[in-house]
Amino acid sequence: MAANSQEVWLVRHGQTEWSRIGRHTGNTDLPLTEEGRRAARLLRSALAAERFADVLTSPLRRARETCELAELGDRARIEPDLAEWNYGEYEGLTHEEIEKRAPGWILFEHGCPGGESPEQIRARLDRLVGRIRAIAGNVALFAHGHILRALAARWLGLPVSAGGHFFLDTATLSTLGYYRESPAVKRWNSPLSPAGPNGDDVATRLEGSRSGR
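^ that's the sequence the OP posted. Answer follows.
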């Protein structure tokens, strides 16, 4: 497959208890909630229609569980560079709690004390992007909110700080690709629900979004 026809599907894992209440979850290995598992199962119909040359997942449980419930677990390879941002001293804290310690703190610009800096994130994502672009075909990635937002920025050649402009919910699909020869975002933060307002299913709505529906 030519590089400019490759699509990279980004899947943020389903809800966990900490994501539900807004706690920064880096290396803490939490399972999905029942709502998170339900949402992950809804991914099946959308992903079943796609042919992936490779499936990569973060080593963390919430991403692996999402991948398995989406029925791609038997094909998935663990990719350490897809692990969530290491929050260091901010692990488990909400944004409001961090603001009390460090007013004006922005993850994508300042990083975390005792954790990863934006420069460290850039280095591992650039490694990952290089490996993905060497794959002859479409790729599915199962990972986490902040690392996927930073990945989108680096795919476009933007600084990690630009990841702050890409909002990403749990259990959503996004697609990176190309506009002609230029790296592009083709779809972002597409929610999954059992049916749309007209009763259409997930796969039908995603296909409609491709054609401008």
